[in-house]
Amino acid sequence: RNMLIVPMPLHWTRLVKRRFNQSAHLAEALARETGLPHRPDVLIRPRATPSLGGMGHDHRFQTMAGAITLREGQRRRIAGRPVLIVDDVMTSGASLSAAAETLVTHGAAEVSILVLARAGRAT
Fold first, then answer.
1. Which domains are assigned to the chain?
2. What is the overall mean pLDDT for the chain?
């Protein structure tokens, strides 16, 4: 298969604060182990969004609407290809949903998601 691995992007201000994108490191390691191509520059987060922690489900999805886009010139890389989005943690799925919607809108054949952990509600 010609699946393309892409990490969940961080806004540049969050990247400066954290000093690394953990999803990018996971995606790179997965690409190295599988031999699948890895493109860390396909998706971007041009709009800074507040931390989604503490927001309700619907508010998270509203906040993420349009927050993740395709980097200019990357459409040809994803057109007709399956794409795997790699992220560290999924809580509501709002960020992953925004990323997947962007990829499908711009021509990805299919979008799969791989996360290291799933955050749940405290019991």
1. 4-118 (3.40.50.2020)
2. 83
